[in-house]
Write a structure and sequence with these properties.
- The protein is of the alpha+beta class.
- Among the domains are: 41 residues, no CATH class; 71 residues, no CATH class.
- It has one helix and twelve strands.
- Strands 1-2-3 form a three-stranded antiparallel beta sheet, with no helix packed on it. It has a three-stranded antiparallel beta sheet with strand order 4-11-10, with no helix packed on it. It has a two-stranded antiparallel sheet with strand order 5-8.
- A hairpin with a 4-residue loop joins strand 6 and strand 7.
């Protein structure tokens, strides 16, 4: 059915308009049904509304996925490290690492890491020096019959230099 616009009346809002249209002849009688007034929603508005709904759903899904990934990035390493911070097996003696001093850095010595079955050596690395603080290296401490891993960390006080052997 084709509608012929005869006159446009005052728009109701910026997104919809009221149109007066001339209706086609009725197929059985052949007569014109006269002027029909009505609100016509532009097709582009319906498309924009549907498209906006799809976009919002996509954004919600992406936000939920990002939230899940962020939470798992925080929780998983914490759980993994908590499970491997103690051992029933005595750790091996620390390896000796000889390093050259570097200006503005300190050496964080390597340590033995327990993976649940065996110890694995984690090599040391240079880290940026912090003025007014010193680095306390990773170590294993005996707590009863178990061994507890104490992670390396900064403490306030005099900067500790690399021991020369």
């Amino acid at each position: 059915m084709h509608l012929h616009f005869s006159r446009l009346t005052r728009p109701i809002s910026s997104r919809t308009a009221t149109y007066e249209v001339q209706a086609p002849a009725h197929p059985s009688t052949g007569s014109m049904s006269g002027i029909v007034s009505g609100r016509i929603r532009p097709a582009s508005e319906a498309y924009r509304t549907a498209n906006r709904s799809r976009e919002m759903l996509t954004i919600r899904k992406a936000m939920l996925a990002n939230l899940f990934l962020a939470a798992s990035a925080v929780v998983a390493p914490t759980l993994a490290s908590a499970a491997n911070d103690s051992a029933d097996v005595v750790p091996p003696a620390p390896r000796v690492e000889r390093v050259a001093p570097r200006e503005g850095f300190i050496w964080a010595a390597g340590y033995w890491e327990w993976n649940g079955r065996a110890y694995k050596w984690v090599s040391g690395t240079y880290i940026y020096e912090r003025r007014g603080a010193h680095w306390v290296a990773d170590r294993w401490e005996q707590v009863g019959p178990h061994w507890q891993h104490v992670h390396g960390h900064w403490e306030q006080g005099q900067h500790q230099t690399v021991a020369k052997e």
